[in-house]
Amino acid sequence: MHITEGIITGTSAIVYTGAGIALVACGTNRMKTFVLDLPEKKPLLGMGGALIFFLSLIPIPAFTGTCTHPCGTPLVAILLGPLIGVALTGASLLLQAAFFAHGGFGTWGANVVALGLCGCFCGWGAFRLARRLGFPLWAAGFAGGLIGNIAVYAASGFILAATLVKAPSPQYSFLGYLATIYTAYLPTQLPIAVGEMLVTGMALQYAYNQ
Hints:
By secondary structure, this protein is mainly α.
């Protein structure tokens, strides 16, 4: 669920854009270290970026006038690290905004926060916690994929609600918008989250077996 162009404006857009730039800069520095330490794994960066780009570009109708999509960020964060995942997300979102009108330049920072920061760190964190608790690799992958996907949509809904409540004549309170957004996306997003859970767990187990 990319936040489309024109929804976030003014100071909020500047703040989110600044946060997005800072996050991507940190991720880019981590990426440089990754390439220096493991030059033979440099192609994995391109593969990770392509995975996020194509998965988050799949439009699945949600409710009137909107769509949703898988994320890919939890899996990339688990494989390459969350900061690298954030940097790849930022690059993917720029390309999507420029060539597919998916998201937007004014909302790029907010989308980096939701899809990149929340998707990568929550997915990676859930995976690491599950492994520390003794979960097998595939089950920890399930946890990372599920939590990471849900975190993206929880963050996007929160950002949207916080933006809409500032409109000149808001229809609902902040909690009202939050409840409306989450309820509207739940029937579509829950199956997608379960699908991302399964794909993340199976992909990690397959990669380990190979």
